[in-house]
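dumping this here before i forget
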Amino acid sequence: MKISQAIKYYRLNQGLTQKDLSIKIDKSIRCVKRYEKGEIVPSIKILECIFDKPIEDILYNNLTTGE
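structure:
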């Protein structure tokens, strides 16, 4: 799964709107939309904030599931 897809999946799975996520990560809604479209890639710090876990856990999960 691409980062952009994972961000959208996480957001929808948590019942968050793009506005809710933008507030959570202190970015604009436009920025969230661009993350989800894959136009830009968030920093590691933003990824940790989006997924509520350290980047090591995000990468490990990705490697072990093969996605």
